[in-house]
Amino acid sequence: PSFFENMPKIELHAHLNGSLKMDSIRELGLQLYGENSSDFLKRIQEFTTFPEEMDADKLSKCFQKFAFMHELTSSRKGLQLATQMVIRDFARDNVIYLELRTTPKNNEHMTRREYLETILKAIQASREAYDGIIVKLLISIDRSQGLDAAEEIVNLAIEMKSQYPTIVRGMDLSGNPAKGHFKDFLPSLEKAKKADLHLALHCAEIDNEDEAQEMLDFQFDRCGHGTFLTLKQMQQCKEQNITIECCLTSNVKCGTVKDYDMHHFKRLHDNGIRSVICTDDCGVFDSTLSQELAIASKVFSLNRNNIHGLCINAIAAEFCDDNEKTDLRQRIDKYFADNT
Ligand code: 5GP
């Protein structure tokens, strides 16, 4: 295994339904559909195939890919197994601290509350099963869905935080950024903030300077992507102590960034604005956190100190308690002391 594979890692931006690796999707298909899984297995290919050419609509097309996973996790059994497999796959990549985020769904098998309870139980069982990995849950609002759903989800998040205070730590705003308006979700997010839920919001994922400004002025903890932040807005992030979650392969495959070397991570890094490397959807984008760090290191000529600095950034930005942070810091510092 490489330096990055062996390294104890921290993942702060991972959508549950996008994080199931190809092999685990196969495994899940077999477990759920048994002998009838061949039709399902044939469709796997289209799930991770991306068109080569740039296309203005590429990001929207990426969002359609999630329907495939949502089918698999539409039953309690599928959701529970998928959650376990996602955590297992991160643990196999030596991720020692994971913040998973997901949008609660309701369908004929589950209410949104049951969706969350199923995941929370799977998370509780995961720690012993997978090398003591620490897993937190961020509950997502999908901006392409209505305000009623958002309000229900915030209320559930507040309730779940009191029931599972060590796991439910925050909220996310995600979904197709071309749909919905941030302003409409403000009252719900205000409520979450007042209830001491941390906020990791997708912001400036597409070019919409005014909306990014509204979000920054509202103030939140971590910015997902931040691709189209202006330099002034990046400086504002620095002043407001907002960490930017950079997801290299995701941005390149979705076409919001032309190539790795054009990624805004460089601008953030060069300007001393706190950022971290994350996977986003390591299943859909067929990557791992180790690979993302290796790419960052190569493309932006990062040395071991820089990589160590990224880990320290991640610890500072985690939504967990100080004693957990201290323990993680010791484990990571030891790895760097032993390997330089
Ligand atoms: P889930 O919430 O179903 O567990 O994870 C998949 C969902 O996360 C997608 O349907 C989408 O709403 C959201 N998501 C995943 N990746 C991205 C991304 O790169 N940008 C945004 N805005 N949302 C995403």
Automatic annotation (TrEMBL):
Organism superkingdom: Eukaryota
Catalyzed reactions per annotation: N(6)-methyl-AMP + H2O + H(+) = IMP + methylamine
Domain Adenosine deaminase as annotated: residue spans: 8-335
Cofactor or coenzyme needed: Zn(2+)
InterPro entries (alphabetical): A_deaminase_dom, Ado/ade_deaminase, Metal_Hydrolase
Entry coiled-coil feature ranges: none
Family: Belongs to the metallo-dependent hydrolases superfamily. Adenosine and AMP deaminases family.
Name of the protein in question: Adenosine deaminase-like protein
Organism: Musca domestica
The encoding gene: LOC131800667
